[in-house]
Amino acid sequence: MLRAGHSLRFTPTEIEELRRVGIDVDGARTQDDLDQALARWAGTLAEDRPELLDKIASAMAQAKGASLPARLTRVR
Description:
The chain has helices spanning 12-20, 31-48, 50-64, and strands spanning 2-4, 7-9. By secondary structure, the chain is mainly α.
């Protein structure tokens, strides 16, 4: 990913690699676009594969040396 001010550019290889894990960044041109793509991806994981999202969050927290926040419950 290349950054120039507020603009982002992805190589075709990066776009394909992200697409393989379900993240569509093909139209992302700004940080906000990327944030929205990641939010959609996380939302889909939360609904379809919450256990996988938990594993990803745990791995990310462990890599940064952070602790996960208390688990939130969803109210319907």
